[in-house]
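thought: fold this chain, then report.
action: predict
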Amino acid sequence: MKRVLLVTAGLFMLAAACKPPKLDVYERNLEVPGHDWSYDYKPSFEVKLEPEDTAWLYNIYVNVRHSAAYPYSNLWVLIGTQYPGDSLPSSQRVELPLAEPSGKWLGTGIDDIYEHRVPIQQHAIFSKPGVYKISFEQNMRQNPLPNVMNVGLRIEKAGKRP
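observation:
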């Protein structure tokens, strides 16, 4: 009995000494209301980085899930990024290719649903700790944009900073 108590106490002390996990992978996908992405819907994501997370490089992706009825071979988005301590986000227009010129979808598909993980930045540096806010706004001529089911953000650790 005494041995069980010692082992249990040791495990509790070990668990209490552990730090929260570092950012290895962040991934979150949000459903587009009615699967029609309007200009008004701007999915937003908050990523909190600790001081030790700034020592790494990261790859950043936009996740897109759509039906086969999506009418275009690409998707233009405005990516807003608000850095820790900044009051206004910066914005960048990015094209996300979704199909080959032949019309074949680039993503993976099951039945008539296709998923894409499109890289938007490789070896990105998050230079200061804090909360980063990243948002996406569809920037196509058609509004609302039909047959877009989900939009998401993926950030994965790519290696140690030089």
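thought: worth noting. The first strand starts at residue 25 and ends at 31.
final: tokens above.
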